[in-house]
Please model this.
Amino acid sequence: MKPPIKLILSAVMVMAFTAMTAYADVITVTGSTQGNFDGGPTSIHPTIGNLLTALEFQGQGFSTPVTTGLPPVQVTVGSFDLRTLRNFDFNGHTFNLVVNFTAPPGAPGGPQTFTATLSGIITVLNGSEAIAIDFDNIPQAFGYTGGIFNFSVNDIPTLNEQSAFVDLTANVSATATPEPLSMLLLGSGLAGLGVKLRKRRSS
Model:
C-alpha cells in the first residue's frame, strides 16, 4: 500500500522543522567595557571636561544569554554621569566604547570599538544642562564557533545632571550556522520525496 502524498509531505515538513531547530541554541555573550574620549587613553572610567563640569563613563562587565534566531536581547554595558557646575562645549567631541568579548567560544579576542559623537553645550547660567550621545547604531557582526552574533549600541538622547549614571545599553542577537548533518538529512528527505513523486506520476 503506497503512502498518501499528504503523509509524505507531512513527514518532509517534520524533517525540515527538525533540521531548522536542531541548530537553534542558546549562547552566552560575555565581555567587559572601557572607553575613551577623543581617542585618548582607554580606561574603565574615562572623563572629559574640567574640574567643575565633566562627563564620566563607567565601564563594566556583562553577560547575557541569547537564543539564536530570536530578536535581539538588551544588555547594560556601562553608564554615564554628567556633572555641571561650569560652562562646557561638548560639540565636536567623540566617545569610543571599547568592548572585549570573552564568550561565546571563538568570539574575537581583541578589543572592538563603537564610536559615538557628543553634542550639547553646557551653559549653567542659562539653565541648559543636557547633552546627547549619538552612536552609530548599525550592528557589527562577530563570528564565533557555531555562528555569528550581532552587537549594536543604543543612543542616549538626553543626559543631564539630574539623571546621574544613566545606563548605556546594547542589543545582542545571534544566528547559528546549520550543522552539515541536519542539512544532509533535510536534503535527503527532499530528494526522497522527489523520487516518490516521479514514481507516482509514472505509475
